[in-house]
Amino acid sequence: MRIGYGFDSHEFREGIPLKIGGVTLTYDKGLGGHSDGDVLLHSITDALLGAVAAPDIGALFPPSDPKWKGADSVVFLREALKRVHDAGYGVANIDASLILAAPKIGPQAAAIRVRVAKLLGVHSDCVGLKAKTPEGLNLDNTAVAHVVVLLEKRRSPKAPRKTKKTRRG
Ligand SMILES: [Zn+2]
Questions:
Q1: Which terminus of the chain faces fewer neighbouring Cβ atoms within 10 Å, N or C?
Q2: Residue 62 to residues 6, 17, 27, 50: CA-CA distances in angstroms?
Q3: What is the mean pLDDT of residues 2-30?
Q4: How far is the CA of 37 from the centre of ligand 1 (A)?
């Protein structure tokens, strides 16, 4: 088994859509950042990458690269998941804590869990999501996400490609 941990934070800005866990939430502000600012998907991506000791999200998708401006964070998650699978692992479960003053996540939590589960290829019972308000942290204009992920060994790691082709039969 492997364990991974991810952390991310983004600041709220007026006039942009709010995306959390690949779900667009109704709110008058969104999360700023070079991509779509999806604090939860970024945190999950880093947890997956960390679990297989791969370079982190900032190294793989540098904010300095205009290619990632406004990018859908699902792209980052898919690359991290591919690296997990290539290393011979699958996701067992994840657990996430979201810390934000508003909007209320409760009514949307089920939709976010279903979406994240689908992206990870697991049952929604394997996606934990808690939302908390930033009591005493003076972070009312910020969204923070902490994620832990557990990976299970599924098969041998992907072998490097052979130059010589062999035929069976
Ligand atoms: Zn981020």
A1: C
A2: 17, 22, 28, 17
A3: 97
A4: 5
